[in-house]
Every structure is written in C-alpha cells, then in structure tokens.
C-alpha cells in the first residue's frame, strides 16, 4: 500500500523555498493573527463582564500589540506586492528585487512602531 | 571526496512506516545525485527504487527533493549541494516505494486543461502548414519547454493542500496552447482554469519557478493566465 499524499506542516515548513516561501508563511501567520485579533475584540464587546475585561487585557497588552502590528503591516505590504505581481505579470521577473524592497519598506516602519510601543509600555 | 547520502526508504511489502538509510560514499564532486543513487543501487542495496530514463534532463523522470528542494537528480552535481545530501520523494503525491511517487493525480490534472492542439478549421488552401509569425511563436515559447517532471507542482503549497488544484505544470500546458495563435480552444481552456481549482488557487509563492529545471517563468505564465481569465484577452 502506498503512503498517503498528505503533507504534514513539518514537511511543508522544511521545504527550502527561500525568500518568497518565507513571505508566504508570514502572510498566512499575519492573516490568522488579524482574524484572532478581530475575534477577541468582538467577543470582548459581546460578552462583557470579567470575561470581556480579560479579553481586553489580551489585545491591549503591549506584546500582543507588537505581534498584531507585525501581522497588519506585513500582510498589507506583502499583499500589495502580490497584487502588483498579479496585475502586471511581466514584473514577476523582478520578484527577487520586489521582496528586498518589501523588507526595506517593512523593517524601518515596523522598527519605529515597536520602539514607540515599547517606550509607551515602559511609561516613557 | 567523502559524502553522506541520506535516502528516504519505504518498501510497502516490508515497512509499516518510512525511514531513512544513510550511505557513506567516496565519489568525485563532479558526479550527479543520480550517479550516487545508481552507485547505492548497484553496490549497496539493489532494492533501492527510483525513476530514471534519459539521465540528461530531458525526460523528467528523476525529479525528487534534494536537500529540501525539488530538483532533477540527473542535473544536480554533488559540488552544488555539499557533502551531506538528503534525498526524499516529491511532496504531495503518494509514495509507492522509496523515491517513486504515484504520478496519476499529476497527469489527471494535466489532462484537464486539454493539453493538445485544437483547430477544426479547414486547412489552408495549399493544404500545408497553418502559418504563424515569429512574434506569435515567441509569445508561448517559454511554456513549450516543460518536460512534465512535476518538480513545480509538488513544490506548490496550494497543491500540498489539495490535489484538486490543477497545479503549475497543468497551467503551464494551458498557457502553451491558450497563447498559440493557431489554436481555437482558448476560451474553453480559460473556462477550465477559471474554476475554483484553477488559477485562483495560485498565491504567487514562486516555489514553482525556482524548482523548474528548465527555467520556465512559471509564476509569470500563471500571472498572464490570471489576467486572461479576467479580461478574456489572449494577445
């Protein structure tokens, strides 16, 4: 009997797709992170009481804010790159450069945001 | 040079679970991964199973994962992958034995896009060729190079998730005929690739382009197909 075709998460993550594969994985993490954030936000408003306050404390935590800002910013910038690639397929030959530009845009903005969040968290 | 070759092994008659076997080999750095597999099969374990045919990068039989990436064993030199080499079967297809996978789902998807020339119009008056300008021929030149090795399709996370997805190789075949000025079934193929199992499942991961041993710009071809499905234009 042949082995099943199922590709485990571990096998998939071990595939060495390099830069584009990394952006694909981070894009998915970003999407799931935002879905979790919105769900927790809605639930906090809906249930109220102690459970609502507890849910609020999760997404108001500065560590969670660093995570969710990563999700939103990376998902947006990477999504923009993919949209441009899809609308102008000829640009796909410059995919490698596009990913460098993506990181060059993402890292400074994210770095500044993380600095501001941490400074605010430390009471600065 | 000394290399360590770790090979994925699975014999359905004996094994309940797959495992790896490691071979220490003394070889030249200019030898190919296929040569190493032949060496193991010839001198260490004759039961090792893998596909090979032309051994020169034309037939596409020996696509496999080499150090975590899809490559052709006959086109990959030892010096390009180092002295620790891991060889595994393609992902997303059933493993029949060792490095041999069941290619049927791959070819089933390939057949769905009608990968053959369709033109029911009468032949030209001279009864000979349907002429095409060099520019019209160049439009789909890149996608004629496919050797159906499945390295692209089995590197695609969308295909790993579901083999309903046509996959890069089938879409390359669709591109080859959709943009052929002599073919008359472009609209039918565009309808097929517009379905939920078609181009919409491509997330521009780019693994396919990097895995292609023929350097076909697959992601670009799929991008052109996406636009064609939106606009209906195939020029």
Helix content of chain A: over 70%
Task: Look at the structure and give the mean pLDDT of chain B.
Answer: 95
User: What is the CATH architecture descriptor of chain A?
Assistant: Up-down Bundle
**Order of SSEs of chain B:** EEHEEHEEEHHHHHHH
The total of beta strands of chain B comes to 7
Largest interface: A-B, 25 and 36 residues
| The number of domains of chain B | 2
CATH class of chain A: Mainly Alpha
Number of helices of chain A: 5
**Broad structural category of chain B:** alpha+beta
CATH architecture tag of the largest domain in chain B:
Orthogonal Bundle
What name goes with the CATH superfamily of the largest domain in chain B?
Answer: Alpha-helical ferredoxin
Name the quaternary structure.
Answer: heterodimer
Write the layout of secondary structure elements.
The complex is a heterodimer of chains A (124) and B (235).
Chain A: H1 9-14, H2 18-47, H3 49-60, H4 62-87, H5 95-121
Helix pairs in contact in A: 2-3, 2-4, 4-5
Chain B: E1 2-9, E2 19-26, H1 33-43, E3 63-66, E4 69-72, H2 78-81, E5 84-88, E6 95-97, E7 100-101, H3 104-112, H4 134-138, H5 157-161, H6 168-178, H7 186-193, H8 207-211, H9 218-231
Parallel strand pairs in B: 1-5
Antiparallel strand pairs in B: 1-2, 3-4, 3-5, 6-7
Tag the structure with descriptive keywords.
heterodimer; A: 124 residues; mainly alpha; 3 helical TM bundles of succinate and fumarate reductases; 5 helices; 81% helix; B: 235 residues; alpha+beta; Ubiquitin-like (UB roll); Fumarate Reductase Iron-sulfur Protein, Chain B, domain 2; 2 domains; five-stranded mixed β-sheet; two-stranded antiparallel ribbon; 9 helices; 31% helix; elongated
């Amino acid at each position: 009997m042949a082995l099943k075709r199922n590709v485990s998460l571990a096998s998939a993550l071990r595939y060495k797709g390099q830069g584009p594969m990394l952006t694909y994985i981070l894009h998915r993490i970003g999407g799931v992170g935002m879905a979790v954030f919105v769900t927790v936000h809605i639930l906090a408003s809906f249930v109220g009481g102690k459970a609502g306050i507890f849910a609020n404390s999760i997404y108001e935590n500065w560590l969670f804010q660093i995570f969710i800002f990563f999700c939103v910013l990376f998902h947006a910038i990477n999504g923009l790159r993919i949209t441009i690639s899809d609308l102008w397929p000829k640009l796909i030959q410059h995919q490698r450069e596009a990913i460098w530009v993506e990181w060059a845009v993402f890292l400074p903005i994210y770095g500044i945001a993380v600095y501001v969040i941490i400074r605010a968290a430390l009471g600065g | 040079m000394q290399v360590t070759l770790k090979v994925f092994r699975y014999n359905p008659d004996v094994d309940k679970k797959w495992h790896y076997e490691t071979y220490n080999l003394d070889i030249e750095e200019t030898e190919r991964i296929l040569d190493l597999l032949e060496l193991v099969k010839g001198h260490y374990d004759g039961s090792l199973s893998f596909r090979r045919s032309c051994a020169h990068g034309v037939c596409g039989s020996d696509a496999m994962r080499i150090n975590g990436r899809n490559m052709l064993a006959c086109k990959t030199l030892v010096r390009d992958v180092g002295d620790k080499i891991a060889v595994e079967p393609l992902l997303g297809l059933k493993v029949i034995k060792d490095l041999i996978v069941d290619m049927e789902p791959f070819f089933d998807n390939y057949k769905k896009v009608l990968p053959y020339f369709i033109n029911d119009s009468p032949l030209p008056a001279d009864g000979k060729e349907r002429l095409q300008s060099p520019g019209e021929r160049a439009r789909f030149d890149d996608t004629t190079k496919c050797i159906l090795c499945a390295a692209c399709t089995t590197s695609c996370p969308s295909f790993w998730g579901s083999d309903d997805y046509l996959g890069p190789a089938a879409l390359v075949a669709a591109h080859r005929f959709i943009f052929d000025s002599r073919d008359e079934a472009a609209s039918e193929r565009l309808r097929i690739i517009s379905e939920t199992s078609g181009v919409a499942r491509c997330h521009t991961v780019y693994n396919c382009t990097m895995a292609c041993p023929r350097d076909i710009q697959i992601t670009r071809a799929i991008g052109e197909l996406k636009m064609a499905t939106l606009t209906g234009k195939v020029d």
